[in-house]
Amino acid sequence: MKKILEIKNVSKKFALRKDNFFSRQNYFTAVDNVSLSLEENQTLGIVGESGSGKTTLAKLILDIEKPDSGEILIAGKNISLAKGKELKELRRQTQVIFQDPYSSLNPRMNVENIILEPLQINNIAAPEQNKILHSLLNSVGLPQNCLKKYPHEFSGGQRQRIAIARALALKPKVIIADEPISSLDISIQAQILNLLKEIKDELRVSYIFISHDLSAVCHISDKIAVMNKASVVELAGAEELFKNPLHPYTQLLLNSVPDADPENKNEEIKIIQNDSNASPTCAFAERCPLYDEALCVNENTLMEVEKNHFVKCILSSREKALS
Ligand SMILES: Nc1ncnc2c1ncn2[C@@H]1O[C@H](COP(=O)(O)OP(=O)(O)O)[C@@H](O)[C@H]1O
Ligand code: SF4
Ligand SMILES: [Mg+2]
User: Fold this and answer.
1) pLDDT in tens, 247-267
2) Is there an atom of ligand 1 within 6 Å of 59 CB?
3) DSSP assignment of 26-75, as one string?
């Protein structure tokens, strides 16, 4: 399959506020040496707790933030080097759906204008605009008579459908959905997930689906990257990751997924603080139940422990090698 997006060794740090003019400038690393790729018509899930760097990574792909190092290639072209027409075209290829459809839609614009705006900015001819508008309403399951209505007249789920239609307007190759169901009622979440799945097959787009909720990510993704403290700590096919999580952090996330069957109730998330004066060697050391001072050296790269299953944990990779 053809690669539509490649993220190569990308890092991004932010300057922290200084105490005073003379104090030293400190930085916070939000994305640390991340490498990922996405193929055509594929969904890459990115999962991790709040603050792990998921949105920053999305902003780097969308060219809202610039990486300090590394490269982001869209359809083989480096977005940091593109200029003028080429940059506009690359930006058009990646669109975003945000978490909160209440604040991401302009309350003063009606549905017609919200969906048409990106087409107008890109000078799409008027008859073509109308054709696209009506087919988008069909694709996202909104009635044709909703065009003159304003966002406040819709439910959360319907607003997210409007946001999805707008994101699809320019026929992007990649849609980044950043926590797209987190603010919706549970009953609506499955509908939006299913809609995204249908659209993927109908329009052959690729998704980056970002969430702190591993069960939602597993439901929609072909492969999943688990992020912790700015790094990808595990990367595998969705099914494989669910069945065979290797990194202690992924295991922790999986144990916190609620089970639908009450007989089978999973334990609540257990964050075991390591009191053995955790060394800064492995970034997960202070929370890791398996931490071993003698063995847990820092691993800067993901190790392939099985075909297409990568992990950044020296113990699990060693264990795998011995088994
Ligand atoms: N513009 C910024 N300036 C300073 N720190 C930032 C900025 N954007 C994000 N961060 C910090 O980077 C870390 C990762 O944030 P984010 O990418 O939003 O994580 P996530 O989406 O996984 O919750 C957070 O600690 C956040 O406070
Ligand atoms: S290297 Fe050690 S501390 Fe780090 S995740 Fe693996 S077992 Fe835990
Ligand atoms: Mg976020």
Assistant:
1) 999 999 988 765 544 444 333
2) no
3) -EEEEEEEEEEEEETT-EEEEE--TTSSHHHHHHHHTTSS--SEEEEEET
